[in-house]
Structures are given as C-alpha cells and as structure tokens.
Design a protein that fits this description.
By secondary structure, the protein is α+β, with helices and mostly antiparallel strands. Helix content is about 15%, strand content about 25%. It has four helices and 21 strands. It has helices spanning about 195-210, 260-275, 325-340, 380-390; strands at about 10, 15-20, 70-75, 80-85, 90-95, 125-130, 135-145, 155-160, 165, 175, 185, 215, 225-235, 235-245, 280, 300, 310-315, 345, 350-355, 360-370, 370-375. The chain has a five-stranded antiparallel beta sheet, with no helix packed on it. The protein has a five-stranded antiparallel beta sheet with strand order 9-8-7-6-10, with no helix packed on it. The longest helix is centred in the middle third of the chain and has 16 residues, at about 195-210. It is globular and about 70 Å long. The termini are far apart.
C-alpha cells in the first residue's frame, strides 16, 4: 500500500486505502493480479493468503477490484473487506505475520447448498439410482441435516452393504414404491373353524409327502416354535405352517439371488429375436422342495399334528420362516440346472443358459424365487423344461 497517496486516512484500528484507476507503481514493479482480481501490495513481512468464506457458487461472480470508487479495508484481526460501487461487502480472510489474533486459513471441501424443495424421503425408503454407469438399489438410513442448507443430503446403504452420502438434488434417482400384497388374512380367533382346520390338515399332509421332518425324542434339545398363517386365496382358505426363524441361535446366510431387471429384458429380447415361445413355471410348496439342511433345527410341532408331548420335529428341509429358506431352494434349483447341462451366467447368478455342441444358444432360464421364466428350442424344452417339471412339483405353466 502506498502510504503517500492523498486522501488516505490511517487509524490504529484499520487502514482505508483509495485505489485509483491508474496505479502509481511502475509496470516492472507491479505484481500480477490473483484470480479474484486483488493485487498483493503488502510489505515483505506480511503474507497474504486468501480464502473465500462464502460458498463455491459465489466464485462465479467476477471481481472488479480495479474499478473506480472501490475501497479495500484491512483490519488488525486479519480480515480484508472490500466495498464496491454497489455497496456490497465482500469479506476475505488474511493471515498476517506478527499478529497473534490473525486466523490461519485452512482448505476445506465446500459442499453446494440445497435450493430445491425438501425431498420427501424417510428412513427405510428404497431408491434406485445410477452409479458408475449401472443402476443400483439403496435404502435410506437418515437425512444428513433436518434443517439448514443441506437438507436434501441423505445417508444411504446399497444392496452391496456399503454406506455412502448423496445429494438428492444432484443424483438422478427414483423412489421405489412398496410392493402391494393382496392377501386377506384370517384372524386367530377363526383358526378353529371347519374350513381353517381343513386347510391345516392339507398343509400337514404336504409336510409328510415332501419328507420335511423326522420325529425325535425330547431330550432337552434347544427348539424353536412355529405358528399358523391362514389367508383367503379367492374363496379358498390356505394355511401355512411357519417356523419362527428369528429364535435360532445360529446366524445363517439369508440372501437369495433373483434375476436382474436388465437381464430380464435381455431374456425377452433373445426370445423375440429367436422367435421362441416364452413360458413361466410356478413351483408348488417350493421351500419344502429345497436343499436338505446341513444343520440341526428342532421345532415344537403344532397341536394339530397330534404328536405326543415328549416328541419333537427335526427339520430336513428349510421350513417357511427360516432365514435361509429361500436360499436353500435356490441352491437346489441351481444344482439341478447344472446337472441338466445348463451354464450359470457369470454376470447374474439367477440366469442360466444352454448351448449345443456348435456353440449355438439353445435356451435361457431366469429365476425369481419359486418362479421360472424360460424359452428355447425344442431340444431345450425336452432336455431342460420337461425334466424340471419331473423333478419339482409344478403349478401353473
């Protein structure tokens, strides 16, 4: 700062400098302007370090420090303030050597503040968004800030188990609607009605037909309980004996692959391109036809089974309600398809296909729990589709 300029006023608290349009410093001694347009003209014992206090969006405004009528104020507390013709005050922080109260600026990541309306997402909601060129599903853990400038930032957990933070205004996503289940449940006080008791007996016969358990003596083993679930399917009463899997002491793997939406579209495209017939199959009492359990699960039989009080059931297959019931059925289906000559896709564990000796595609099978979607030529239908129907008890095809 040239202290000899006329009109300059120097106080103990602050120094006011009038910056004329034409600089008195020669071109050789003039230092280049910074990106903001401010010139460093302090003495050699002072180090100027500029840091914007405002957010990153204000960086788009051009600095007009060389304009006429502009004043720069440098105070003892290490702050530089600038006023332009519009009387707008812009504040910058300066570290000055020899001043104890001068703050030392630090670089920090500036997140853009939110400006749109508050996004209506809550804990437990599921969204689908694009990440690294692919669609992923994630659940909302919580909102980053309930108020303030970052109210549309969310903490999420993806299907891969990884947690991350997203800005809802800058990430393309869509909220997944909750799946509706049209099921009319029958209350417990009606479970002893004639139609309900008949449905229970039908379910108990299925357990016997599929060899789902064996009766053992009660020797004080740890056992889990079970309960009945009854509902209407049309006008017919259905019953399901469900084990309380959450009572198990052992933690087991519970995830079960299902075909991805992208691969579902691929399957339909292949079917249309090859002019094959698309078919879907539904497996009856699917979990009772799953892989045999490799651990001991003891349950207390229901009263309707008529088992003596000193007897228990040791499950051979994963009964409905066990955490890995769906996984055990998938393992069984996968082993059957591989034995029939199919190849599992390396990109989707729920997608299988078959080729002939020449390498030509014969057919494709996609899995979604107990539903199969398949298409192929006549050889594929003979070698795969028909054999699947003979191994598993199928419903609608």
């Amino acid at each position: 700062v040239d202290a000899g300029e006329p009109g300059e006023t120097i106080n103990a608290d602050e120094t006011v400098v009038d910056n004329p349009t034409e600089s008195s410093v020669s071109d050789q001694e003039e230092e280049p302007a910074t990106e903001g347009g401010l010139e460093s003209q302090e003495s050699t014992n002072q180090e100027l370090v500029d840091e914007f206090i405002d957010d990153a969006e204000n960086n788009e405004e051009e600095d007009t420090s060389t304009g006429s009528g502009e004043k720069t104020i440098v105070t003892d507390d290490g702050k530089r303030k600038r006023k332009d013709d519009s009387d707008q005050l812009i504040e910058k922080r300066v570290a000055v050597e020899g001043r104890e109260n001068a703050p030392i600026p630090k670089k920090k990541v500036v997140f853009p503040p939110n400006k749109q309306e508050k996004i209506k997402l809550k804990k437990g909601d599921w969204i689908e968004m694009e990440e690294n060129g692919r669609l992923i599903r994630a659940s909302i853990l919580n909102r980053e800030k309930l108020s303030g400038r970052y109210y549309n930032y969310f903490n999420i957990r993806g299907e891969d188990g990884l947690e991350r933070n997203i800005d809802g205004e800058r990430v393309k996503f869509k909220k997944l609607e909750e799946e509706e289940c049209d099921m009319v449940m029958i209350p417990a006080d009606r479970h002893k009605d004639d139609d309900c008791m008949e449905a229970k007996n039908v379910e108990l016969k299925k357990l016997e037909e599929f060899d789902s358990y064996e009766t053992v003596n009660d020797e004080g083993q740890y056992r889990i309980s079970c309960r009945w679930i009854l509902w209407y399917k049309g006008e017919e009463v259905r019953a399901r004996l469900v084990a309380r899997g959450f009572e198990e002491l052992e933690s087991v793997r519970s995830d079960s692959p299902t075909m991805d939406k992208c691969n579902l579209r691929l399957l339909l495209t292949i079917c249309a391109s090859e002019k094959w017939t698309l078919q879907s199959s539904d497996v009856k009492s699917a979990f009772l036809q799953g892989q045999h359990l490799d651990r001991e699960v003891i349950i207390k039989p229901p009263k309707e089974a008529g088992v003596p009080s000193d007897k228990l059931w040791r499950l051979k297959v994963a009964l409905y309600g066990l955490n890995d019931a769906s996984l055990q059925f998938y393992i069984k289906v996968r082993s059957v398809l591989l034995e029939l000559g199919c190849t599992q896709s390396t990109m989707d564990p729920a997608l299988f296909y078959m080729r002939d000796k020449a390498g030509k595609l014969m057919g494709v099978v996609g899995l979604h729990v107990d539903d199969f979607l398949h298409c192929g030529n006549k050889a594929f239908e003979c070698n795969v589709t028909q054999k699947l129907a003979s191994i598993f008890l199928m419903g609608k095809v």
